[in-house]
Predict the 3D structure of the following.
Amino acid sequence: MAAEQTVTWRPGAVELDLTYGPESPPAVTRLGVPGEDTRHTEPVAIPVAEIHVDAEGSTTSSSERLMGSAVGRRLRVVDHRTWTEGDRAHLEVRARDAVSGVLVVVTWSAWADLPVVRCRTEVVNDGERPVTLRAVSSVALGGITAPGSAWWHDHEVGFAHNTWFREMVWQARTPAELGLDDTGLRTWGIPSSRASFSLGQRGSWSTGGHLPMGVVRSRAQQRSLLWQVEHNGAWRWEIGDQGGALYLVASGPTDQSAAWSRRLAPTERFEAVPALLVLGGDDDDVVGSLTQARRRLRRPHPDHAALPVIVNDFMNCLMGDPTAQNLPAVVDAAARVGAEVYCIDAGWYTDGDAWWEDLGAWQPSTRRFPDGLGAITERIRAHGMVPGLWLEPEAVSVSSPVADALPAEAFFQRDGARVVESGRLQLDLRHPAALAHLDNAVDRLVGELGLGYLKLDHNMDVTQGTDRDADSPGDGQLEHQRALLRWVRDLMDRHPGLVVESCASGGQRMDAATLAVHPVQSTSDNQDPLLTAAIAAAAPTAVTPEQGAVWAYPDPGWSEERIAFSLASPLLGRVHLAGQIHRLDERQSALVREAVAAYRRVRHRLPAALPFWPLGLPGWHDDVVALGLRDDDGDLLTVWRRSGPTTVRLPLPRRAGSLLDVEPVFPTSLPTQARWDARTAELVLELPDEPAARTLALRPAGCAARGARPPGRCRGATGCG
């Protein structure tokens, strides 16, 4: 009998061993970084793909789990190859199941300088009869906990709740707390329990509940594995125990989780959604590598470097009631504070009072704008700002004439009836009539109004999918979501330079596939500045800083410290300025102008900076939250004190032994007392006894940049001349 073989793949910053044999499926028996001992053998390893097909269950007495598919265990390697293309190396293995006739192609890709692996899985019907797929893994990996560890309490699992108004709230639990524990089964020769922990999403809100991400961290070592599923629709990931370690299986939609199946005729193929794996130490380490990978995978756009200041008149401002009477004051105020883009939000198209009840035609309201909406966009341009407009392209109100003008097949359907969700119909962008309708509407608006910015919203979670011209409702949903991103790419191809923001009730569609296309991503609809601080601090876990838009909404009834607190929130991301900027007094307006000017001074650093969290990932109710960005020039740091002691100490162990200058970035018109304690490697701030925020710049002492500082601005910061 032929012996097992091992393929070693060494693209640079990661090392992968793939083992297979005539009686065993291909499995990753090592995934680590150079010099790290992560090697393991059966029964820890699992097949490189978990494929579930019709009329065939699991091999592990638990068909709730993705792990344990019969097809996966019957896979036998046909061949494998490695190659390099551009800046990435690739390893591909092809394996066949003789029973079902499917050929599975799994590809790993990596950059030489990043401990990141991107995984793709494709299934080809290589047999003579149709095969119905019920689940196809994006990545399947055993042994993700440290070899020989008591994984049930020596590790913790991180995941993020992502609900409306409460986005990116990260949790940490031991496997035992999630129901995964040592149950003594190995004593009896049983390598795996029937337990698993899974998260997922089934509808059109890809992040409407949780981020499609997770991480397993060792408590005893600086060792973490982070993953993300790259899809703007349904997804699922699960972890469980196998052979004395945890495994990971992640996928797009499945039969059980999202009513998905795909029937493949002979020679037909299906490509699963991609997944990304990141190896590293602590959260700062793995999110830093993930941030770099996200930048390399996304569609290039000039907005990634320009980062203009955006005013949007919805949040705590006009709230969906733009008219020719109330817009000019806000537009003029936006220009006075230094905005560069002005986006007119919802309501510009309806003659009624409820903006959400008249979607689909996308014609400017003649009641709201008797002289035409163009008069407002011309006013915006006259102030030197780029005009923008809000749309909810996939939605058509049931009362809209578009609902009857388009064929029924242009909408999501179940059993021949159009799906109605929240009084709206969902366009199916697989259908040419739906595409033509949107293309005509958007091209008309961009051309007639001279738009340079579009905010695309999506305020309904359509969990039913569509079974029209699809093998299953989940498959119709999957292909629509893919068609949606193709449409956005085509739109920006037709209108080079157009910035297209992604929004879905704030951050309910904040996934890697969306972020690879849209240059700007809304992170939340939250209207409370104290709560928004936690969202802003966590945002770089889900989106690169230069893409993550955070609201600031100053109000004339607030104290200057409360206004500055809100204005500080977007300074390490993208500025979405709203609120009552047109009602502020001169002193309050000056504070807004100061924040915009501060952002303009530092924004050039964001596209290359990597995030870090001096206090750890923010908790929703933490007294103090903090976010830092690190680049070659030093650190930018925003600290939000919401309650608790007025003395705040921020540990910066990576700066231990260094002498640092501390410079206030914003606000400089309010007192800032900050000093660097080199002995304890802590930044110490004295803040007012009310909610207060400060954005600071930290640089090695004596750097050349200090000479450019305005005199007298540091107000007690050590090392500032």
